[in-house]
Amino acid sequence: LMFRENLCSDCCMLFVFDASDYRSFWMKNTVIPLDIIFIDENFEIVDIKYALLCVTNICSTYTSSNKARYVLEVNGGFTIENNINMGDTVALR
């Protein structure tokens, strides 16, 4: 989602990996805040990070505290507004 100035309220970006592992994301050139939802192979949310925008050369890295196979990026605040928490399960359609 680099360089995007907005993300529609029901839009997201899903990353699918071949296997579970610790995942790291950084916000270089990301000008909107995002919630990063880390999901394991059983579709359980194993971590949520609240990533701030970054337009400088030094940006924070957001690493999952548990292994994840999927990562879902949504608008910042989405998980709080929708009461989404670690331990919840996700249905991918």
What does this structure look like?
With 93 residues, this protein is mainly beta. It has one helix and six strands. It has one helix at residues 78-81; strands at 13-21, 24-26, 34-39, 45-51, 61-63, 68-75. Strands 1-6-3-4 form a four-stranded antiparallel sheet, with no helix packed on it. A two-stranded antiparallel sheet has the order 2-5. Strand 3 (34-39) and strand 4 (45-51) form a beta hairpin. The longest helix is centred in the last third of the chain and has 4 residues, at 78-81. The mean pLDDT is 91.
Overall pLDDT metric: 91
> Rg to the nearest angstrom?
13 Å
- As an assembly, this protein is single chain
Q: End-to-end span in angstroms?
A: 21 Å
Number of helices: 1
Biggest sheet record: 4 strands, antiparallel
Structural class: mainly beta
Which overall shape is indicated by the principal axes computed on the Cα atoms?
Answer: globular
Task: Indicate the low-confidence ranges by residue numbers.
Answer: none
Helix content: under 10%
